[in-house]
Specification:
Shape: globular
Number of helices: 10
Helix content: over 70%
CATH topology of the largest domain: Tetracycline Repressor, domain 2
Oligomer: single chain
Length: 200
């Protein structure tokens, strides 16, 4: 049993190391300009090993997809007595922009914006996350309402990103941009809360 646990831990560590090395290379050279062979060499593993953990090159970039979806589902359930149906999703959405526009995830967004392949994969994954959240919300409201709400929630993120880019181009200070993004997200959720009657 202990040996199995050690083997699984080493697998997780290897997977994480490969993903971390890949992200560093993508940030330095660009996703499209970096080959899987270069990632393998930098991580000191074989190309076959990379593909054992990541079926496609873009999966190296989206290595936390399952974890992220789980966090969205936890956000649906993160609701205290008297809070609105979307309270946890509001907190999750605000948390995603806590370090905008130049914080720890800035390089991730830069890499994503530079590759059409990554953007297409990201949109596909975003749709999967939306479907999962819609299914979770459907335990509280009818399916059609759940679908609409999930879609609206997941539309807030790209809107906020677009506004961040616009305000950055206009020369707005980073702290002011963060305040504006928070206000935008809260306004969006205020409108959605009204549509479902506030607290449920």
């Amino acid at each position: 049993m202990a040996e199995t646990g050690l083997r699984e831990r080493k697998k997780r560590e290897t997977r994480a190391r490969i993903a971390d090395v890949a992200l560093a290379l993508f940030a330095e050279r660009g996703f499209d300009q970096t080959t899987v062979a270069e990632v393998a060499a930098a991580a000191d593993v074989s190309v076959k090993t990379v593909f054992n953990y990541f079926p496609a090159k873009e999966d190296l970039f989206f290595d936390r997809a399952e974890e992220i979806e789980q966090r969205w589902l936890e956000a649906v359930a993160d609701r205290r007595d008297g809070e609105s149906l979307l309270a946890g999703l509001r907190r999750r959405s605000l948390g995603r922009f806590a370090d905008h526009p130049s914080g720890a995830t800035a390089h991730f967004r830069k890499i994503l914006g530079s590759s059409a392949l990554l953007q297409a994969k990201g949109q596909q994954m975003w749709a999967w996350h939306e479907d999962a959240v819609a299914a979770a919300l459907a335990t509280e409201v009818d399916e059609l309402t759940a679908r609409v709400l999930a879609h609206q929630v997941f539309s807030i993120h790209p809107l906020a990103l677009r506004m961040v880019e616009l305000w950055t181009q206009e020369g707005v200070e980073a702290d002011e941009i963060r305040d504006r993004v928070v206000a935008l997200i809260n306004r969006a959720f205020d409108l959605l809360d009204r549509s479902v009657g506030g607290g449920q």
